Amino acid sequence: MVFERYADDIVIHTRSIEQSEFILDKLRVRLWLYDLELNNEKTRIVYCYRTARFYKAPKDIPVSFDFLGFTFKPRRCKRDDGQLFWGFRPAVSVKNLKRMNADLLKMQRWVRMTITEVATSIAQKVRGWIRYYGHTRKSGLTPLFDRINERLAKWVRNRYKIRSWRKCFAWLRRVSKSYPTMFAHWEYGWLP
User: Fold this and answer.
1) Confidence grade of residue 108 (pLDDT, cut at 50, 70, 90)
2) Nearest Cα residue to 63 out of 96, 87, 92, 85
3) What's the pTM value of the predicted model, to 2 decimals?
């Protein structure tokens, strides 16, 4: 049996549904001996679909789960030889993307700030998100950084009274060409 544990969260890997149910029953009994119980909302059996699997799970078994802020589910992957296959991989969860967007909205209003002050104010959070969630699959962060670029275009629009969104994004592109490391997400290729 293989498992991952972080504090009180555990993911247990088994070979079949029968083995999963057997281990789940044994785990419930073991925890009951210590006056503990499993969280019924979080505890479930999930089928990890991959190309190499020959066994197909019944339709009523979910194929994804969240663990430590990541959603694990089947995703298209590329081998070193360029061939595509289905792998069971993590990426940032939708719930955490919403939380990060809410964090950005809570930040102070940017209108009175210069562009370098805006970059400094969000740099630490953005670098942290890239280091944690981008470690496994950077492409999962694209909606978040597109949203940041839209918010920057809105800042340009309000600050310089430019009415055209196209001109606002053009202004940001000129800045990103001159200063490609000004914003943390620009350093990793999420340019406006």
Assistant:
1) low
2) 87
3) 0.82
